[in-house]
Amino acid sequence: MNTRSIVAAQPTVRQRILDTALDEFYFSGFHAATMRNIAKNAGCSAANVYNHFENKAELLVDILRSASDEQFTATRNALRKAGPAPADRWRAAVVAHSLYTARHQRACLVANTELRYLEEVDRKRVVGSRDAQEHLFVTIAEEGVTSGDFDVPHVHQAVTAVLTMCAGIALWYRAEGPLSAQAVADSYGVYALNLVGYRAL
Questions:
Q1: What is the pLDDT of residues 122-149, one digit of tens each?
Q2: How far apart are the C-alpha atoms of 6 and 77, rounded to whole Å?
Q3: Residues with Cβ < 8 Å from 104, sequence gap 6 or more?
């Protein structure tokens, strides 16, 4: 690898700050994390951090929006490759959603625990992708009910149960454990089919 490639592979100062902030929020929580510690651990000055981000809330919003957008993109990409049957689409969406959670545990856990500390304006900047993801799952589930593939009386409740189940992966999954992230995601795809009353013919 030449020098230019090595330089290109280095994270930008902004990305280094974001990565460090994620670690601070994960280990210390939003309230305990400080811009001073984030700057120190990112290897830059506090002034440099403030050149990129106005405050902790802006850092958290950026991290959560990026994670939510990436997870939503991964889910939509999986759906493009899935078959047309509601069961295939449902399983593909859940597997992709679960796989992202397993591979990005810190971001997903911070999203589920620290969002509550944001002011209403900042919260609204984050929840758009979440709402869009939930709507996507609801749409697939409703299609399955209409086609007769799924037997579930309360679609929104079932979707909430599935998304909550997927979010829980961030609490317990360990990359060094007996199951790979893909194996966990595939299992959750099966669990999710059971939750909407799917029975293969």
A1: 888 788 888 999 999 999 999 999 999 9
A2: 30
A3: 67, 70, 71
pTM above threshold 0.85 = yes
* Number of Cβ atoms within 10 Å of the Cβ of 65: 17
Query: Cα-flanking dihedrals φ and ψ of residue 178, to 5°?
Result: -70, -20
Chain centroid, CA 111 distance in Å: 8
Q: Is residue 147 classed exposed, middle or buried when 0-12, 13-18 and 19+ CB atoms within 10 A define those classes?
A: exposed
Other CB atoms within a 10 A radius of the CB of residue 96 amount to 24
Question: Which amino acid is present at 65?
Answer: R
* Amino acid found at 109: L
CA distance 58 to 55: 5
End-to-end CA distance of the chain: 54
Smallest CA-to-CA distance from 99 within 187, 31, 40, 21 is with 187
